[in-house]
Structures are given as structure tokens and as C-alpha cells.
Automatic annotation (TrEMBL), chain B:
Signal peptide annotation: none
Coiled-coil residues: none
InterPro entries: FAD-dep_OxRdtase_2_FAD-bd, FAD/NAD-bd_sf, GMC_OxRdtase_N, GMC_OxRtase_C
Domain FAD-dependent oxidoreductase 2 FAD-binding: start-end pairs: 7-46
Domain of life: Bacteria
Organism of origin: Neokomagataea tanensis NBRC 106556
Gene3D superfamilies attached to this UniProt entry: FAD/NAD(P)-binding domain
Chain ranges passing through the membrane: none
Protein's UniProt name: Gluconate 2-dehydrogenase
Amino acid sequence: MVKSDPTSAPKPRFTLPRRSVTSALLGTTAFWLTQPSAGISRALAREAATAPYSPQFFTAAEYAFLMAATERLFPKDHNGPGATELGVPEFIDRQMQTPYGVGDNWYMSAPFQEGPANLGYQLPLVPRALYRQGIASLERYTHQQYGKNFAALPAPTQDIILTALEGGSLQLESIPGRTFFEQLRTNTLEGAFSDPLYGGNHNLGGWLMLGFPGARADFMDWVNQEGTAYPLPPVSLSGQTA
Amino acid sequence: MNTKNADAIIVGAGWAGTIMAKELTEAGLSVIVLERGKEHTTAIEGAYPDSIDELRGAIRKRLFQNLAKTTVTIRNTVDQTALPYRQLAAFLPGEGVGGAGLHWSGVHFRADPNDLRLRSAMEERYGKNFIPKDMHLQDYGVTYEELEPFFDKAEKVFGTSGTAYTVKGKVIGDGNVFAPDRSSDFPLPAMNDTFSAATFRKAAHDAGYHPYSLPAANASQPYTNPYGCQMGPCNFCGYCSGYDCYLYSKASPNVNILPALRQDKRFTLISNAHVLRVDLDGSKTKATGVTYLDTTTQRETSLKADLVILSAFQFHNVHLMLLSGIGKPYDPVKNTGTIGRNFVYQTITTSRVWLPENNYTNQFIGAGGVGVAIDDFNSMNFDHGPLGFVGGSPVWVNQAGVKPIAAAVGTGGHGTPRWGKGYKDALVDTYKHSLAIDAHGSNMAYRDVYLDLDPTWKDAYGLPLLRMTFTWKDNDIRMNQYVVNKIAPIARAMGATKVSLNHLEFGQPFDTRHYQTTHLGGGAIMGDNPQTSALNRYLQSWDVSNVFVIGSNAFPQGMGYNPTGTVAALAYWSAHHIRTTYLKSPGPMVQA
């Protein structure tokens, strides 16, 4: 598969949300909510969840890193599914193909100059480049240190590496480990908890875990129920229910 | 020969700009409003369900300023190199029709009378020596009594929900006992308390404080404002802050003013029009109009008008004044000049209280302006004498609707895992059973905290970026710590199982990476002395008398309250005096 250099790649086409064939055919959420179409919705969701996703931006090796690392950050446990089951790697790959992937609303004018951390991000790298260079550098490190790819390492070793990145003791060549870690952590959590239309939060698993009702957005009858949990399960923007 | 394009040109289509446009068209003037962003209407971009998409909304910043075009540089101290604010985080200015007034929360306060004359009030009570030497504490030059009719008018336009304490000197409700007297009640009754807010109300009361319902520009009932614009009742969907209300329940320029303005032939709105400068005549004492860039065609156009109103976001107003040569730039070394002087912010820290596991706080239920607050430690409502600091903070539970991505990113730290084992336990517990209590406080002005033009970085149009020199000072840190400590007994009374009190730390610089508040202020302040203020008490430039600058840029210091209510009142105040005085005899309304 040919992979483009993120610095010279043409600006990718922005896929507008909810302009898929599905939503065009089936219309608004109001329609979904009031019509007996939950069965269709569930079938579509199942199909989407089972169809294997081929990454468009990440190489197979990069994607293997993403699968492994995001699952360590957000592991499956007694609370619910982990990052891979929720589709987080797919979410991140899809995000790289939106304006966000090329840092379209970041100020990216030179000169780029290092400074104190509290003055914020100062690297000349947009998310695509951060991932490409960061993963490459991290894999060089794991090979040097352990003779294997990150994904092939046992979970406790992966956790040691992630901890070193988070704490800033591991520098990925020109990228501070902490910067790479925060990018990965933030995108992982976005994938776990954004609407499923972006490729993550499969079967609304993220929202179910939190008791977040999604697109219901009408709580007139539950403003104060003396601390009782909100009773209805989540619904997505396209009407998918859990 | 009359070659003007309009009687008045207004820069920015947020609250200040649309209020000024409404007032000036009512006075018979032709008005052109230039807005650098795009159109935003509730029926299209604001419609359900696309508008309530967290990823596209608050996370990917659908309604906020696009920093790729222009941003600011920031440093903490004058000996540092300021670096660009490359990613939105600490503050979130708006862009497009409605401005930040489209994505605001809706907390709608009247300024405290003492806050409007804080230097005088503090000196009267504690003496001149109480105020630190490097603190530029100043009066607004306008009093609460003078502004009251305009606070009243703004509330009626915004459809504000609240409970009054006194109207015309008579106690009429269990509102804020510290609030100033009003000429009329709120147009709508207060919003209901969420469970979190109700719990806080009871606990604060039991702890001996004076809880009240936050005044909210979120409609508790259907409402038609004096312009004939309609609002629907809020359903606590939780998508106020960072979003455009799909229910027409949160006041915005788009819902509460523009529907009326758009029907007026004297009103023209040009979007995608980025104003590059105010054009001045050779004397630099009169504006001839403005020059803007059409960002869709890249064509530059100069428009001529008799009157120019700057009503962009706080720091954009200051930036435009500096770029245009209006007034004298502030010099912190010589302590001269006024443009950029008294740049201020607010001290906001969020503490967290966990309730027992059979209590679900349902944090996704809420509204931006709704909540319960206490003012016992705000403004001058307590004795500063033994404390030795200036300023204060309201303390409140303002459950505005917590979304899952924001909750997930924010969970962890302070000894709690941020990922991996244990993280999800903390996240689920925090999301289901906790609530936030904010200390939303004042920030004073200092000689070495200011705005000027950056020497290095440029915007997409080749103009120098605005530079912020800002950090926290001991006075404000002490105030914040004092008030945050007052939260502990309230949390205990709430039956907390765990409490995390968060406050500013000494020596910790302002951090641009985490959202704090968009309530920036000052930089082109109002006052009664042209040596220490950029604008007179009518928000008219001392230096260029046909330029008025409307916004929180006029605040001499950051108050504990949210700024929008005061910005709106100042806009109506300024417009009233333009209509009744200035237009009859254009020129300086106060002699320097």
C-alpha cells in the first residue's frame, strides 16, 4: 500500500458527518426514534461492527501499534469493552482523513520555537505527522530495547513504555514522549466516547459504561429525581440504540 | 460630497455588535455589520441532531475561532519570548455570526455596584494603602444606578430567568441577598435546580451561606422579547456551552436580535469580512471607515462611514486599535499609554465532590446558565481587612451538561490513574456520582500584565499577532485559595464521600493548555482619565471620537461574575448616549 508523506499530501477530502448512504436513506433521528426501525438500525450496526476495517492512513504495522497501545490505555475490564472492541483504532484512522488530521484549525506558522510546557504545543507537526514520526521512533526504540515491535511485547512491558512516555522520560527523537502520549490518549478517549458515526464507540459501548444517553437531549422530566439514575439507554445521532 | 457607504460600520456580529446595530438602526442610521466568520442560523447549523455532536462541536471546535488564520502569542513575564497559542485550549473565542454569544453558556449577571467602582469602594473601606502599588485598580466611571435601566433592558431582550431579591427596595423573593436593587423582576422565573444544584443549595444554606439561583439566559418558559423574537422553554439537554441551542432556549444574537434586525432595510450584514484596520484621517483623531478583506474572494474593500463601532471579541478590539493606530500603545516600563493596559482574566478553579453511590448526579442533564451560587465571598461582601487581598469569587454548582469525551479526558491525575488499570473505575464513578463546584473569581490588573503587538509572528494576512503578557499574581492566588477553602464545609454538608479541592498555587504560571474560561477582559478600558483609560465612560475612544469600542475590553479588572450581562448593559448604555447626545453633536462626549 502506498502511503503518502503527510507533509506533502494534498488536503484530504473531508467526509461530512451523517452524509452516508444510510443517513440519506433513513433521514433524521426523529424519524428513527418514532418509527419501528430499531431492528434495521441494529442490523446495520452489527454489519458495520463485523465488517473488517482496512486502515486508510496507517500502515498495517502502524495500525498494529495503535491496536495494542489504545487497548492498554483503555483496556477491557468489568466496566465494559476496551479500545479495540469499541473501534478506537478505526476511529483514529478515520480522523486522520478529516481536516483535523492535517491540523486545519491549528496555527502552524513558523518560526517554531521550544518554550516552557505551559505555553502549549509548539511542534511543527500536525496529527498525521505526529503519529507517523512518533510511531516510527517508538518502534525503533522497542526494537533496540526489546528486539520486538510494541504490539508483540507483553502487556506489562507495553505499560512500562506508555508510563515512560506519559512521564516524559522517553523522548521520541524530535517529539517529546509526553506530547505523543497525550495525542494518543486524547484520540483514544474521543474514539471510545464519540458518536458511532465516526467509527468508534461500537454498539454504544462507551456510552453504556457511563450511563450517557447520547442524542436523547431532552431531560425535562429528570432535572431533579433526587439522585435516581436516568432510566433510558443511549441512542446515537443516526438512531442506533443499545 | 457625501461618499459614505453607511452612517455606521460595526465590526463583529456578536452580542455587542448586534445590540449596537439594533439601537443605531432604531435611531434611523444605516448600518453595515462586518463579521469575519460565516453565517450561523439555528434552523441550519444549529438543528437537531447534528448540533449536539460532541466530537464535531466542543472537541473539534465547530463554533470557535479558527487559529490557523489568526491567533495570539502568550508569555507569562516580560523577560520571556511569547509563543503562539497554536491550539485552542485555555480560552475559546467565537467566530461567525453570533460570535461567542452563540456558544456561550448563558449565565447572565448584573455587575455588583462595588465592582464598578472598586478602587473608590476599597479605599473608602480599607484606606489607600490597602491596594498594592503595582495593582492598576480602577473605577469604570459609570455606576450601577446609571446602568440599571440598561441591565434591565438587556434581561428583557435575553429573556433571562431568575429570582429577584428586591425590586424598588421591596423584598419580593428569595434571590441573592447581596444583589443590588432592581427596577423590575426578571422576565422569567428561575430555572429549576438540577439534583446537584439542589444538593448544593441545601448544604450551602445549612453551612450558613446565602444560596440563590444563577440568573440564566436560558428560558424557563416560552418567551417573546421586546423585539418580537421568540424563545422556547429549555429542556436541560445540556448542549449550551460550546454549542448553538437547537431549541431556541438559550439567548443568542442569532435568536434574540438578528431576526428583528434582518427585517430592517437600514441593516446590512456582511459575513466572511475580516476587518484589517480602522482607517483614520491625517490627524489620527477621526476615523473615515474601515478596510476589510473578503475571505472568500481575497479582495480588500474600504468602506466609509461617520461612525465606527468596534464590537469584536475583547482582544480583537484591542488588536484592531493597535493595528490602526487608535490611541497610544501602553508601555509597562514608563507606565504610559492606554491601549493594551489593564489586560485581565478570571481566576476559575473547579473542585469536585463525590456523593454516595446511590446518588446519581446525571451530569449530562443541565443548562449553561443554570445552577445555584453563593456570593458570601464575592466582591466586597466579606471583610477583606484581615485577609489583605482585593477581589472575590462566587461559588457555585453550574451543571451545564457534562459530555463523555470531556469527562473522559478530564478524569485522572492528582493520584488517580489517567489510563489503564483503575482509570475506567475512576471515570465511571466520577461521571455517575460526582459534581463540580466552581470558584469563579476576580482577577486584578497589574502594571506588567498587558497586551501589545508581537515582534515575530504574523497572521494569515501578514499583520503582527497580538501578544499577551499574563500570569497569576499573589493577590489573586490568595483570594482563590481563601474562597476554595470555604467549599470544604459545604461539601461535608452535602454528604460527600470524597472531595478534591482545586485552587491556584503560588509560583504556578498561567497554563495555556487547559480550558479555564473565555472571560478575558480589559486592554482598552473605560474610565474618567485619558491617561489611564482608552475609553471614556460612554465607551468612546478618548483619541478618535467617532470610534466606540464595546466589549469586556472596557473592564478595568476582571470581576467574579460572568461578563456578558455587563457587556450587554454597557452596549445599551453607550448606544443610549450616542442616540441622545452624540448624534446631535458629534465629537468627544467628555472633555479630556
